[in-house]
Design goal:
Mean pLDDT: 78
Number of strands: 7
Strand order of the largest sheet: 1-2-3-4
Shape: elongated
Order of helices and strands: EHHEEEEEEHHH
Strand content: 5-15%
Distance between the termini: 60 Å
Structural class: alpha+beta
Helix content: 40-55%
Length: 202
């Protein structure tokens, strides 16, 4: 069950996280789509079968490209997670939920998942798309911070020991490392390996 709550009166949020790599990839995809539609729209004049295109058709194609670009960027940049003493506010590509601390049990990051999830008291879960596995170290830091705040604010939750924090850190690293790499991440690793081999030969 989600609850709405006002902004805390005593200061800014304890944590705000947003994805990074997907925004970069979305920017590249947007540039390619808009550039392609712009080129087609400008070069579109006629065809071999006698079909002619008017300026309005050209503008329409360019407009479609711009629309797709805007939608991609908005969808990629929209996810955000915000934490304060009242609870967690999660905004995904579609949907926005606010949860008070009493209904939050834990933050899980299952093997193979692209982002963690809030596990709730009513046996439900809600994804946190603002923390994405493709961000690697940045995602790990955000996950650790989120879990630390859960330990701090959650109702009737004891203060974790240093050993518990270390175990949580190791578990988070394992969860993140267990996720299969995507094609772009594999290409990044291969590129780094080639650079390392090249520098080693020198």
């Amino acid at each position: 069950m989600s609850t709405r709550h006002p902004e805390p009166p005593d200061g800014p949020a304890s944590m705000v996280a947003r994805p990074r790599r997907i925004v970069i990839y979305a920017g590249i995809a947007t540039a390619v789509i808009v550039g392609a539609m712009l080129a087609v729209g400008i070069l579109l004049r006629g065809s071999a079968d006698g079909v002619s295109f008017r300026p309005a058709d050209q503008v329409g194609l360019i407009g479609v490209g711009l629309l797709f670009g805007v939608l991609i960027m908005v969808a990629a940049a929209r996810p955000r997670v915000r934490v304060d003493q009242n609870g967690i506010s999660v905004r995904n590509m579609i949907g926005h939920r606010d949860y008070g601390w009493p209904v939050i049990q834990r933050v899980s990051f299952h093997e193979g998942a692209q982002w963690p999830s809030l596990e709730l008291a009513d046996d439900e879960s809600y994804p946190i798309m603002a923390i994405q596995a493709m961000d690697r170290e940045r995602a790990l830091a955000a996950l650790q911070r989120l879990r630390a705040l859960l330990d701090r604010y959650a109702v009737n939750r004891p203060e974790p020991t240093d050993q518990a924090r270390e175990q949580a850190r190791v578990q988070a690293e394992r969860e993140l490392a267990a996720r299969p790499l995507g094609r772009l991440e594999l290409e990044d690793l291969q590129r780094l390996a080639r650079k390392a081999n090249g520098s080693g030969k020198k």
